[in-house]
Amino acid sequence: MSLIIRKAASADVPALTGCYAAAYAPFQHLGLPPVTEGVDADIADHNVWVAEVDGTLRGGVVLVLGKRAYIANLAVHPDASGQGVGPQLIAQALAAAKAAGHGQVHLVTHCGMTRTQGFYRRHGWTETGRDGDKVYFATQLN
To answer: Given Cys at both, which of 5, 13, 47, 139 links 63, Cβ 3.0 to 4.6 Å?
Structure first.
C-alpha cells in the first residue's frame, strides 16, 4: 500500500466531497451539518491536506489557524479504514499547527459518533467538555 499526504488543490474538490459523503453517510441520522458543502472554500481559505492510498483520494483534514488552532474536519473513506490514513492526516495538521506557533489543537465531534470519539482518545486527545450534541477535544503539542 502506498499512502501519500499532500496539500489539497482545487482539482481535489470532487474526490474530497465524495470522500466526505462516504465517511459521514453512517452518521447522517444524527442531523449533522452539511459536510459536503464548502469544500472549495476550505481549500482556498484554510490548510487542507488529502491522503491518497494507491493513487486514490481516501481522506482529508481541514486545519483552521487563528487565535486557536482547530481541526474543522477529518474524514477517511470507509474503504481506507484501518490503513493509517486518519493518524497520518492528524499528524500533518498537528505539525502545521506547531510550526505556526500553536501549543494546542482543538476539535469538536458529535456525541453520537462514539467510535470517532474513541479514535481521538486512542490518539492522545482529551475530552474537554460537552454542550448539547457537541463533544470537545484538545491535544497538546510538544
So the answer is: 47
